[in-house]
Amino acid sequence: MKNKFLLLGIALATLTACKTASTLQLAEVQPQKNISINNELKNEEEFVKVIEPYKQKLDKEMSQKISHTSVDLTKEGDNSNLGNLLADYTLEGADAWTKKNLNKNVDAALINIGGIRTTIGKGDILLKSVFEVMPFENEVIIVKMKGSDLQGLFDYYAKTQVNNPVSHLYIETNKGQLVKSLINGKPVNPAQDYYIATSDYLALGGDNMKFFSKGESISTGIKLRDLFIEYFRKTSNVVPNTDIRLNFTGKK
C-alpha cells in the first residue's frame, strides 16, 4: 500500500512538471542514479495511523460468522455442491423479487462456474468467505423467454458440457448430443413464457451464452453477492443439494 502512494506522489510530481515544461527552457540533462522502489522503503507512518481504525473495523466486520457448513463446499464436478447451492439461492431470491414485482414465478436459474472464484471449507462461514467466492458486482437479472427459444440454452450445454450451475433445470446429454431437457421437472412448452434468473454478465452474452439475447432482460437491482449473504444468514447450518442436474454421459 505504501508503495502505491509513493508511486502516486511520483506520478503527480511528473504531471506537474509536464504542465510547466512549456514555459521553461531545457538547460541541461544530467544522468542520475536509479532509485529502486521495493519493500525496503520506510512506512508512511501518518498514513498508516489514519487508515488503521478503518482497517480494524473492516477486519472485524468481515470476520463475523454468518452461517456454518458441516462439509466442504466446492465447485468441482458437474453437480458441485457449492454450485448447486448458489444456483438455488439465485432462484429463491429472484423468485421472491419476481412474485412481488411482476406477479410471476421464476422457473429456473443459471449461473456460471467461472463466477464462483473459490471454495468454502468445512466449519464457520464468515462474511469474507462470500466476498472471496463472489468478488464481482454482478446483478441478478430475470430473462423472460419463450419456450421455443430455450432450445438454445439446452444446445449450449450439449455443445460445451461445462458445469455451469443450474436450478430447476435438468440437462442430459450423450456424447455431446442432447438426450433429455426438463424445466421444473417437465418438458418445455414451446408456447409458454419462462422466467430465468441469471447474472447481468450472462444475460448480456457472457461465456458465449448468446441464447439469452432472444429474451427480455428485466433488472432487479439485486447484487448476487448480497443475495448470497442474505441466504447464508438465513441458514444456521448449510446443507447443499447434491441432486443430479447436469448429466453429461460420455463427456469428451
TrEMBL record:
Superkingdom, natural source: Bacteria
UniProt-recorded name of the protein: 5'-nucleotidase
InterPro entries assigned: 5'-Nucleotdase_C, 5'-Nucleotdase_C_sf, 5_nucleotidase/apyrase
Listed SUPFAM superfamilies: 5'-nucleotidase (syn. UDP-sugar hydrolase), C-terminal domain (SSF55816)
GO cellular component: a single term: outer membrane-bounded periplasmic space
GO biological process: nucleotide catabolic process
Keywords: Signal
